[in-house]
Amino acid sequence: MKALVVGLGSSHRGDDASGPEVVAEVAALRLPDVEVMVMADPAALLDLPRSVDLLVLVDAMRSGAAPGQVAVLTEGELPPGTAANTHELGLADVIELARALDRVPPRLVIVAIEAAHFDHGMPMSSAVQEAVPAAVRTVVEVLGAAGG
User: Fold this and answer.
1) Domain span including residue 105
2) Which long-range contacts (CB under 8 A, 24 or more apart) does 86-91 make?
3) How does pLDDT run across 36-49, given as a tens digit for each residue?
4) Per residue in 53-79, is it b (16+ CB within 10 Å) or e — as a string?
5) What's the CATH code of the domain at 88?
6) Count: domains in the chain
7) Is 148 within the bounds of a domain?
8) What's this model's pTM, rounded to 2 decimal places?
């Protein structure tokens, strides 16, 4: 099984940096058959290679939960138009478009980290920074459960 882990976000917008931070730590693990990449804009997901069996997206979002909470979601659990982060298009909208264009791999999982703020030029909040190791473990568990 081939897996791709994508960290969505920007290192210059507070908790939006959590996706790239988690992916950097997953990359350091050098897991077999797992590729990693960072994207600032989820619309770039439309250009991903079709040769992966599992796509794990790691992103900061606001759902009303406590900052730093890590959740595992499927694409169906993201309401359309979800303002998950600072991206131009919401993640749910991009996934829906990718599905319509047959650009979604057989399995898609979202590891979401509840954000406190997306302030430009600010570091991650302490709650989100403290949640990064838990999010890394969650990604590794998702990969393990899928046979990756």
Assistant:
1) 3-143
2) 86/9, 86/10, 86/13, 86/16, 86/118, 87/8, 87/40, 87/41, 87/42, 87/43, 88/41, 88/43, 89/41, 89/42, 89/43, 90/42, 91/8, 91/42, 91/57, 91/59, 91/61
3) 999 988 888 888 87
4) ebbbbbbbbbeeeebbebebbebeebe
5) 3.40.50.1450
6) 1
7) no
8) 0.88
Torsion sign across C-alpha atoms 115, 65, 128, 126: positive
Q: Which two tokens stand for residue 14?
A: 């507070």
Residues 121 and 29: their CA atoms lie apart, in Å, by 29
Query: What's the pLDDT tens digit per position in 103-125?
Result: 888 899 999 999 999 988 899 99
Within a domain: residue 109? yes
